[in-house]
Amino acid sequence: MSKIPTIGDSESSFSDPVIALTVDQVCHRLQLSRPSVIGLIKSKRLHAIKVGRSWRISQQSLDRLVAPPQDGAQ
């Protein structure tokens, strides 16, 4: 019988565990206001998912937002 992979399991097919941040956590990290972060989400510059009445932002989405532009990209 095969073992069911779990998040964080070294033999798992999952690459990295997903860290979900709240809007307030993103505000603190970027030193932006809450309306500014919501604006980034609504403009689709920052990918987020709605969970109930609140937003969750993955660490990977936040990293993509603040990463320097690649060569050739504007």
In short, what is this structure?
With 74 residues, the protein is of the alpha+beta class.
Notes on the structure:
- The model has no long low-confidence stretch (mean pLDDT 84).
- The protein is α+β, with helices and mostly antiparallel strands and 74 residues long.
- Helix content is 34%, strand content 15%.
- Strand 2 and strand 3 form a beta hairpin.
- It has a domain at 20-66.
- It has three helices and three strands; from the N terminus they run E-H-H-E-E-H.
- The chain has a three-stranded antiparallel beta sheet with strand order 1-3-2.
- The protein has helices at residues 23-30, 34-42, 59-66; strands spanning 20-22, 49-51, 54-58.
Distance between the termini: 51 Å
- Count of helices? 3
- N-to-C series of helices and strands: EHHEEH
Percent of residues in β-strands: 5-15%
Strand order of the largest sheet: 1-3-2
- What is the percent of helical residues? 25-40%
Rg over CA atoms, rounded to whole Å, is 16 Å
Average predicted local confidence, pLDDT: 84
Q: What characterizes the major β-sheet?
A: 3 strands, antiparallel
What general outline do the C-alpha atoms trace? globular
Q: Count every beta strand, where a strand is a DSSP E run of 2 or more residues.
A: 3
